[in-house]
Amino acid sequence: MSVVLITGCSSGFGKLAAIELARRGDSVYASMRDLAKAGALLDDAKAAGVTVEVIALDVANRASVDAAVSDVIRRSGRIDVLVNNAGAGIHGAVEDADDDEVARIFETNVFGLIRVTRAVLPQMRAQGGGTVVNVGSLTGKLSAPFGGIYAASKHAVEALSDALYYELHPFGVRVVLVEPGAFETGFSGNVLHQRRSTADSPYASLDARFAEAQGRIPVAGLSGGRQDAGEVARVIADAAHAEQPKRRYLVGADAAMLGGLLKQLSDEDFEKTMRTTLDFWD
Question: Which active-site residues does the annotation give?
């Protein structure tokens, strides 16, 4: 049995991963910023016949992070697995993004991940092992129009995961990056729509055309999020328990397709393929 701390468990991948890991016999601490949102997790855990411990943790607040990590170690004596899942999205053209909107996304997706990881690592190093699972995104590899700020934050998660992999390997701590494609998780409720991305934006018509073009891509996940989000939870759990996990897990039909194309094609050929498929700009 492993002691697992997961961030961002009120919905989505975090909620599903908490239940999946508990189903496999782990002692799961499912954290979230607002405990008032714990109802869905607790109901689903009860329906699955498992128990999870819900704790408060705001990744944007260092005191909250330190208190939560200390609480888990006090109660269970250790943390074997950290799943950095908490995240926030943003939609709009880069030019239309205001400074505070950009800061809000990086505060959660990048600085929050650093805070929680930094708080857990001393204990993992002391015990001589552990696993850090960072939930990134396909957009960490591939930026799309009107998702540039979010993609930049997930590119940062890619870089941090690579650096941590090498830094922590000598201490027996494994670092894994899970890169999901588009899944229906309720994440849209955490997506910030930039205040200047209105009908008056010079990018408004292009944004609408791109959204329409995405719906024409015949791969599950790129047109409506029809993929089973439970797949991501299972991959997280598999990676957390694998004796020799892969460094990266692309999850979803869209991630596999586009990730494969990125490996096979030059930048120029990839652009031609996307322009031909999407056909949303002249």
Answer: 150
